[in-house]
Amino acid sequence: MPRLPRWVKGRVALIGDAAHSMLPFLAQGAAQGIEDGATLVNELEKISKVEEIDQALVRYEKRRMRRVHTIQAGARSIGETWHLPDGDDQVERDIKMKAKEDHNPNKWSDNEFQHWLFGWNAFTD
Fold this sequence. Notes:
Blueprint: E1 8-9, E2 12-13, H1 29-45, H2 53-82, H3 88-99, H4 111-118
């Protein structure tokens, strides 16, 4: 799924799957849409004039894009990791997953990644 270069044009902003479709391997499609909505509300609450809408939308895009791209990459990585064909790469993956270390190839078992994924706050981050 190709990344869009921008989600905002003028006073129009894309959110959720319209902005950033997700592979299902991190189960983050709906969650990221909700984060988008909360971030958008947070940015719009900061303005007092209609003329400031454009800049509020740009701030929304800037705050969300890097995080969403990281999550998209994580979902893609998990899909590739879980679907390795039998062979040396699959054996190496299984050994790493059994080690239960940080940076586990299975993002669901990577404590550092999980803290980052679920610890985000739309109003302060």
